[in-house]
Design a protein that fits this description.
232 residues; 9 helices; elongated; two-stranded antiparallel ribbon
């Protein structure tokens, strides 16, 4: 027979026996500790389990951020929750010291274009992406974005054959430091700059399904400079 789980003591979230200032400091400590201990963004519902019923999570977050103002890391709002992130200005130093490249470095400019099309037009099928780029986007290109956790299957399209659509994920939001899709750069501005135009791509730069190798050397005439920087 397996061991029965130990009964856990009920956590005192109200802390009514503490003076107001100490109570607030304890709530701040609990919230920051939970976020620090998690490798993924922590949702509001999770944080409310460790603070009192009348406690404002947003005000706690504001106070924690104020205390971290001069630290090399910060508390950011990503993917509908909060997460500790190294400040962007220290990213290069960390990469040089550890020789660790962030997942975004494995994205070619062509990958970024496909990812941007999915982000702005989701839910969208691979065929619809191909129409936008003017070339048939390969299954391998989509599989690569899936392997990084940036896209997943959405609802089936009403098109003949009912193909699955593609949508971005919380990992996508987290990686690019976005709280919601509303934080994406303005689509019209990207179009005006030509950053999402197929005309800006040299022949062969889109990963296509004809058996040709995608051109991953980054030799695009324009880069997606307006795309959000990955957070370190």
């Amino acid at each position: 027979m397996g061991r029965r789980p130990r009964p856990t003591e009920s956590l005192d979230t109200e802390l009514a026996d503490l003076p107001a200032e100490l109570r607030w400091r304890e709530w701040m400590g609990r919230v920051e500790a939970m976020i620090f201990a998690s490798s993924e963004p922590v949702m509001r519902e999770t944080l409310t389990r460790v603070v009192g019923r009348d406690c404002s999570i947003d005000l706690l977050i504001d106070d924690i951020r104020a205390e971290l103002r001069d630290r090399p890391y910060e508390l950011v709002s990503v993917a509908g929750g909060w997460q500790h992130r190294t400040r962007q200005r220290f990213a290069e130093a960390i990469r040089n010291a550890t020789a660790v490249e962030p997942p975004g470095r494995s994205l070619s400019q062509a990958d970024l274009l496909v990812l941007a099309i999915i982000a702005y037009h989701q839910p969208i099928t691979r065929g619809e992406i191909s129409k936008i780029t003017g070339k048939e986007v390969s299954r391998d290109a989509i599989a690569h974005l899936r392997s990084l956790g940036f896209v997943s299957s959405g609802p089936r399209s009403p098109q003949p054959g009912a193909p699955y659509t593609l949508v971005t994920t919380k990992t996508f939001l987290s990686h690019f430091g976005l709280e919601t899709l509303r934080d994406l750069p303005d689509f019209e501005a990207l179009e005006d700059a030509g950053l999402l135009s197929k005309d800006r791509l040299p022949d062969g730069d889109i990963p296509i399904a004809s058996g040709e190798e995608p051109d991953d050397d980054g030799s695009m005439t324009e880069s997606l400079d307006a795309w959000p920087e990955p957070l370190g």
